[in-house]
Design a protein that fits this description.
This protein is mainly α. It has 2 domains: 6-67, Arc Repressor Mutant, subunit A (Orthogonal Bundle); 87-151, no CATH class. It has helices at residues 6-20, 28-35, 39-51, 76-84, 97-100, 112-127, 131-135, 140-151; strands spanning 55-58, 64-67. Strands 1-2 form a two-stranded antiparallel sheet. A hairpin with a 5-residue loop joins strand 1 (55-58) and strand 2 (64-67).
């Protein structure tokens, strides 16, 4: 089973809340109140998202955090990678040398390039889904069309009014 960590899931929850705030600065305390997540967890996530240039932080009495660009320009893949690192189904796919050493047959494996194809399809699909796409309520049919469109390789999923 492929799963996101809780931190990646929480990052999407926080960013969705921020997207609903229409570019207003929000505090960690506000996000905690709105999402019921603990402030230490929120702070850790906000720091990672800031380092990935997904968020802007503003210090001071009236400071806070806001999206660095429109929610439509932030992909789910960017968020996952900011929290978890590169998206990879198997250790041999990562570009990090230490991970490929986890497998004793990495140099002999005939499926390594095939896993790269599958991994690229998943990454492309996640890059095709924006924060705005998952923040706005949609019907199941509309969401299904978006997923099929993303998997088919279109740059952006279909949107319906």
């Amino acid at each position: 089973m492929i799963r996101l960590t809780n931190l990646a899931d929480y990052a999407i929850v926080l960013l969705s809340q921020m997207a609903r705030e229409k570019n207003q600065l929000v505090s960690a305390q506000y996000l905690s109140d709105a999402t019921s997540l603990p402030i230490p967890t929120i702070s850790k996530i906000l720091g990672a998202l800031g380092r990935a240039d997904i968020l802007e932080s503003h210090r001071g009495l009236k400071g806070g955090f806001k999206l660095s660009r429109p929610a439509s320009d932030i992909s789910v893949a960017e968020v996952i990678e900011a929290i978890e690192g590169p998206i990879a189904l198997t250790n041999c796919i990562t570009t990090h040398e230490e991970h490929s050493k986890d497998c004793s047959i990495v140099d002999l494996c005939q499926l390594r390039t095939s896993w790269n194809i599958v991994n690229a399809a998943i990454k492309d699909a996640l890059h095709g889904v924006s924060l705005e796409d998952i923040t706005m309520p949609q019907s199941p049919d509309s969401l299904s069309r978006q997923v099929r469109s993303a998997i088919a390789g279109n740059n952006r999923p279909e949107t319906t009014a």
